[in-house]
Amino acid sequence: MSAETKDLVVPSLQAHTGQGLGTGNPADAFVVEPARARTKKTPRRTRTNFEMLAWLFMRLSGVVLVVLVLGHLLINLMLDGGVSKISFAFVAGRWASPFWQIWDLLMLWLAMLHGSNGMRTVINDYAEKDATRLWLKGLLAVATVFTVVLGTLVIFTFDPNI
Questions:
Q1: Alpha-carbon distance values, 13 to 2, 25, 38, 61, 126 (Å)
Q2: Residue ranges for the chain with pLDDT beneath 50
Q3: Distance of alpha carbon 111 from alpha carbon 131, whole angstroms
Q4: Cβ neighbours of 104 (radius 10 Å)
Q5: Which backbone phi and psi does 33 adopt, to 5 degrees?
Q6: Where are the domains of the chain?
Q7: If residue 69 lies in a helix (H) or strand (E), which one and from where to where?
Q8: Contact by Cβ (8 Å): 77, 83
Q9: 31 near 10, Cβ under 8 Å?
Q10: Entry pTM
Q11: What is the pLDDT of residue 16?
């Protein structure tokens, strides 16, 4: 850290009180603390890039979901005659093709994982107690797995002759 930067580092308590550096400049009240350095004493579990990978997944899955969902809406609602044409027979005809099965499977998996990752972030941000965070994330994981497994089974075991 350079000498100039070191002078601007404010202890946590002072940074959060809004008192700033005492220079009279109101902007000094918003000094950001430097990131913690990773050391050999840093717990192994905090050395992973999980949050960066989760952030990257959200961006990439969001782009793919936009293409999948808009394509789904365009094809089913505009090109195939609209909502009035969608029926059991319509779905049975679509899911007879592996292309549409995979299309819908990708939409299901990406939407559930994208939404669950976003909800996990909300839980991390707003659940104050560790026990509450653990239970909420556990319930989220169970709901996600249940929905993905059930949806996948429906797509691949769909029988129009029922």
A1: 22, 18, 22, 39, 22
A2: 12-13, 15-16
A3: 27
A4: 19
A5: -70, 150
A6: 52-157
A7: helix 50-73
A8: yes
A9: yes
A10: 0.69
A11: 47
Say if CB 46 and CB 56 are below 8 A apart: no
> 52-157 maps to which CATH number?
1.20.1300.10
pLDDT digits (tens, 9 = 90+) for 96-139: 999 999 999 999 999 999 999 999 999 999 998 999 999 999 99
* Nearest-angstrom CA–CA distance, 57 and 61: 6
Predicted pLDDT at 39: 72
CB proximity list for 68: less than 8 A, separation 6 or greater: 103, 106, 107, 110
DSSP designation for 118: H
What pLDDT score does 83 carry?
A: 83
d(CA 35, CA 42): 13
Instruction: Find the angle CA(109)-CA(113)-CA(114) to the nearest 5 degrees.
Output: 115
